[in-house]
Amino acid sequence: MKLIKLGKRFTSAGSRDIMELNEITRILIDFRDRRDWKRYHTPKNLAISIAVEVGELLELFQWRSDDEIRKLLEDDDIRRRVGEEISDVLIYLLTLAHECGVDVEKAVMEKIKKNEEKHPV
Q1: In whole angstroms, what is the distance from residue 51 CA to residue 77 CA?
Q2: Whole-angstrom distance, CA of residue 8 vs CA of residue 64
Q3: According to DSSP H, which parts of the chain are helical?
Q4: Sequence-distant (≥ 6) Cβ neighbours of residue 47 within 8 angstroms
Q5: What is the value of pTM for the model shown?
Q6: How far apart are the C-alpha atoms of 70 and 95, rounded to whole Å?
Q7: Out of 31, 33, 104, 121, which residue is the most buried by the measure of CB atoms under 10 Å away?
Q8: Phi, psi of 9, rounded to the nearest 5 degrees
Q9: What's the pLDDT tens digit per position in 4-59?
C-alpha cells in the first residue's frame, strides 16, 4: 500500500481522509518545486493549462445527451477518467490561486455569501 505524507500524518493512497485545500496546495507546490517547474507556472500559463484540461474534460461528454452521460458514468473506467480530468483542472486552479496570492477557501466563502445576497430564497 502506497503511503502519502500529509503534514505530520500519513494516509494510504485512495483513503477518504479529509484534507484542507491549503494542505493539498502545499503538497502540489512541494511536488512542483522539487521538479523545478515553478518557472513554467506563471498566471498566464496556468490559466491556459486550466482551459486545456477543461477541454479534455468536455471531450468525455461531447455529443452525448444528459441521459447518455448518466449511463456512461455508471462505468468505473469512465468515472476514473472524469475524475482524472477534474483533478487536473483542480491542480492547475489551486496552483494558479497560490501564484496569485488568492486564499481559495476565503474567496469561495465570500462568493457564496455574495450569491446568497444576490439570489435570496
Answers
A1: 23
A2: 45
A3: 21-34, 43-61, 66-72, 76-100, 104-118
A4: 96
A5: 0.82
A6: 31
A7: 104
A8: -120, 165
A9: 555 444 455 556 678 899 999 999 999 999 999 999 999 999 999 999 999 999 99
